[in-house]
Amino acid sequence: MDYFRERTPYYEREGLAIVWPWMKNGTECMLAPVDMDKPHLRLTAAKAAQYHDTALVLYWSLAYKAGCKTFAQVGLTAQGLGRGLQKLGYPPLSLIIMLFFSNATVPVAGPNINMYHSASLSIPDGPPAIDMTMLNQWDSLRFYERFRLMPFSMNFKAIQEPGVWNDAFLSPMYTIYTSVLFAAVLVMLVFILIRFYRLQVNHEVPRDTRLAIMVLTFIYCTILLAHYIITNTTLVGRIVESVVMVLSTLSVELATWYWIARAKNIFSRTTRIIFFTCIAVHMVLLIVTFACNIGFIFTWTNEKRSAILTVLTTYVTPFVPFIGLVIFGSFAIWFGSCAYRVRHNSEACSRSLKLMFISILTTVTFLAATAKNVVTLWRSGRTDIISVSDVVALELASATTYAMRAFVCFMVIRLSCRSAKSSASIYPTIDSTPKPPEDTDWNKHAWQHADSAFNDSPGWPPANMARAPQFEYGADADKWRSLKADIRAPA
């Protein structure tokens, strides 16, 4: 099978395959040098000259003992060996045949092995400099039982084959699905840029939490697009994935924090303090999770990890998304209850349902993250409960979760824009006051209209926000008082 998630051009190669020893007691990932004076090498070179290709057969277990950390590192040392063999008359080294020993029940060389990515900037990762084909653990065992580890040469013929992992991760359906997610996030990013540009031109850019929400969402969407392009099988890809994870949650929770701060009459003081506390604790745990992830990214698997880091990553961080699940699940229930209470008012009910829908979407993302962590923790150390389709499903769930959180932030911004437009389209009547100047500021319209059914507290709106003009309700003042009574009525 080919290198994971690498579209290797089709090839048919035929020539001489050799098993080459590693440096004895070496720790620098170096193959034994070519000894020009060995007679059998010259005899083999004469035989190999009739072919076009040379292949190198390597066992990963031996490469690891020799100090190799990544496949890219193996590719570089193989290049040096190939140049030495060419001086003896061998054809170019064009293929590495990598063999594995494993008791896993799915083919090795999938996304969860550690040889793809580096844990240090000084050690390369990514696809090796020479094409690499990987034998699964069963074929590797049969090969070993027949030929063992002694240096030898043999004729080979290799035909390019993607392998079971690439058949799944490079399939048309997988590619189309991730491309749709990429395009959707790109559209959201363009919308945010256009919205910010309009606010900047009109000198209406907010100077409070709303600006932070817009900027953070823009940064998140930008890095998310990079995450869809860069696979997590490299050091950079793993760092980008961790940054996406933390920004996706911070963006949503910052918007939630703003909701709670503005909804003084929806939640009691005690309820708001509880929600603020839960969000703050969740943010702190999220930062701890991010720090643990970065620590793991820059730690080799054979290095001893601290007891604190092990405890945090085993018993704390896998359940951090569950707190978000509780928070946003409570929001969904609350806004659903509000929608029921004002069900006789179509506009108020519609806005409550929109807030409930946004909360449900966010809840689903945390539910998916919680499920993935539980499954990953449960299968840790086991080899019989995961399959290729399971891994693909988990990867797609993560990609979808990140896109849904971007969509939640996008909906908050879009809802604000719609509310601003609707509030400006009010026409005066014969007994109303003159129409005020159009105001498109977020601060005065976005959440005022999103939560118009709930704005009845003595301190709402704040001093720096003008109350809604009387002509907006006109002769419907009785209807407005009735609406407030519906909100206050018990469920």
TrEMBL record:
Domain of life: Eukaryota
TM region(s), chain numbering: 93-110, 174-197, 209-230, 242-261, 273-299, 319-340, 352-371, 391-413
Entry keyword set: Membrane, Transmembrane, Transmembrane helix
Entry coiled-coil feature ranges: none
The protein's name in its UniProt record: Uncharacterized protein
UniProt source species: Thamnocephalis sphaerospora
